[in-house]
Amino acid sequence: MNQTRFSNAAKSGPAQKTVKLIATSLVVAAIFGGGYFYRGHPLVSDVYATTNAVATQTAPAAPAPENATGTPPQTVGRNLSTLPDFADLAASEGPAVVNISVSGTIKSGEDEAEGPSINGMPQLDPNDPFYELFRHFQMPPQQRGSTPVQALGSGFILNSNGVILTNAHVVADADEVVVKLTDKREFKARVIGLDKPADVAVLKIDAHNLPTVKIGNPEKVRVGEWVVAIGSPFGFENTVTAGIVSAKSRSLPDENYVPFLQTDVPINPGNSGGPLFNLNGEVIGINSQIFSRSGGYQGLSFAIPIDVAMKVEQQLYDHGKVSRGRLGVGIQTVTQDLANSFGLANPAGALVSSVEKDSPAEKAGIAPGDVILKFNGKSIDRSEQLPPLVADVTPGAAATVEVWHNGKAREVTVHVAAMKSAETRANADAPAKGKLGLAVRPLTDDEQKQADVAQGVIVQNVTDGPAAKAGIHSGDIILAVNGETIATPEQLRALVDKYHKNLALLVMRGDRKLFVPITIG
User: Fold this and answer.
1) DSSP string covering 315-371
2) Which of 9, 21, 97, 327 could join 127 in a cystine, given CB atoms 3.0 to 4.6 angstroms apart?
3) What's residue 20's pLDDT?
């Protein structure tokens, strides 16, 4: 919840940032004498007014001047009578857009792995303009504790029974998610699943006969066409803003699997997870990030194409996780100099810089120095286009790859493998229960390989019980209870019942193992 991602800043001049549109009003405990520090930015009112009315003329118009050829000059793209009116779209689609309120806790203390602070200092990127401020004013080590935080985001209703789509970063690590409809009704939402690589989350509320959005086709979107965003910037619910599509298939730093739509629609904190509409009233994207020097909107906003999001949503519902294909290669951009070196006519494709041992690429004969020109028939003009195409292939399926090898093109068949690590979490509506207040399930084979453990159970949900008080949270892998290893939820329950007061859980968190003491009763 509420994360900011940064691109590599230039060594001179202000740092440029790709900001995940997290919520408004994120309040954290201050490190300045018990007050509060509000990390926000001045609210600037950028009003975009459009109309299709033509001003009434009070006098006859003068004849248009003629040019040298005797014909009136042509005005290209200046017909003001064709400007769109967004009122009908806002009225019809606005009720399917929801406000999302998130509450949770930020842990603080001396241990970096236990929360987003070190000695009371938030873990900020060194390029963040607030980094130096916090570094100079950080407080002495504090005892471990937690600070309540609240945030806002947006979402939209997929079906009338309460399935909602939003950004993963809006609800990640949330203790409680509340959805507010335009008719002022509020519902507690369950996080069905979330996928951090695509930044997509699926929520469910217990409601029926709800208004829903229509799904469009992002591939048919043209650069330059009008688009509309509806969301809750700075908490102002059901705010409508408009602009045009600036570019398609944008690749952003650390976002390898999403070909973003770039727009100039005014987007601000609180718009995260809200829909981007075309003029037919169809959702073509999920507003996700902005590119900014200040942290606020500066004319560059990015949306996840809705077809990408819907594939993630379907996998979360069908399988509880998202599977992505993998070749096992490292790639880089083909510059003009590299194209000349390899005998390519144009600087296109993805240059293979490394190949993993026993990977699908190695087995297919792809080697460092090869240039991947096509993947399953689709041309690779830029190296960033390859990862989303590979990720979209079902693991185990065969793909055709055209590579430039030793001065000529050849085609090879690759049997795509499953990606080793994808930050996906599915709660599957599992209620927390038992003495510990946990809902757990066995690890899948892929999860065991990823965590490099032989057995264990993964925590899916936590309530206000002994485990929550001890700091256990969703995603932890419980390996043992008081030294006795476990592989199933039944074994965990039996061992917990065996001890009546105190026990120690061996937990795998990320790539680290730690013992967590728990007091029962």
Assistant:
1) HHHHHSS---EE--EEEEE--HHHHHHHT-SSS-SEEEEEE-TT-HHHHTT--TT-E
2) 9
3) 64
Give the per-residue pLDDT at 90: 96
Q: Per the CATH hierarchy, to which homologous superfamily does domain 325-418 belong? A: PDZ domain (2.30.42.10)
- From 412, 441, 505, select the one nearest 467 (Cα to Cα): 505
Q: Where are the domains of the chain?
A: 1-42+82-321, 325-418, 430-519
Tell me if domain 325-418 and domain 430-519 are identical in fold: yes
Confirm whether 199 is a catalytic residue: yes
Quickly list DSSP for 127-181: TSTTHHHHHHHPPSP---EEEEEEEEEEEEEEETTTEEEE-HHHHTT-SEEEEE-
Is the domain spanning 1-42+82-321 CATH 3.30.1330.10? The answer is no
Selected catalytic residue, list 169, 173, 264, 292: 169
Q: Which of 101, 272, 301, 474 is catalytic?
A: 272
The predicted structure's pLDDT at residue 83: 81
Is residue 418 within 8 Å of residue 325, measured between CB atoms?
A: yes
pLDDT value at residue 40: 34
Instruction: Give catalytic status of residue 251 as yes or no.
Output: no
Q: What is the pLDDT of residue 19?
A: 58
pLDDT for 318 equals 73
Low-confidence ranges of the chain (pLDDT < 50): 1-15, 22-62, 64-78, 80, 109-124, 128-144, 428-432
CATH superfamily, region 430-519: PDZ domain (2.30.42.10)
Residue 256 pLDDT: 72
Catalytic annotation, pick one of 128, 173, 195, 199: 199
